Amino acid sequence: MATPKKLSLAHRLTLPLKDRNLRLDEVSARLGVAQSTVDKLVYDGEFPPPLRIGTSKVWPAETLLNAGLLLRAGGRE
Fold first, then answer.
1. 65 and 17 in contact (C-beta within 8 Å)?
2. Measuring CA to CA, which residue among 49, 48, 54 is closest to residue 69?
3. Which of 26, 28, 33, 53 has the least CB density, counted as fewest CB within 10 Å?
4. Tell me: the pLDDT tens digits for 33-66?
């Protein structure tokens, strides 16, 4: 069985947010800030900390939506 390919950031930005976990690159792109800025905001307690899944840091999209940090696009999410 082949290892599935990781979707590109551009493709992931077009996917609905419902029931998704977002990686650092996607969170920073959706917020319009550098990845290091997201890390600093987490460190300073101004942004929710990520969950760890293996070695990956992810944020549940629902957590960021409920906190008002991301906007629902056109009510589709």
1. yes
2. 48
3. 53
4. 999 999 999 999 999 999 999 999 999 999 999 9
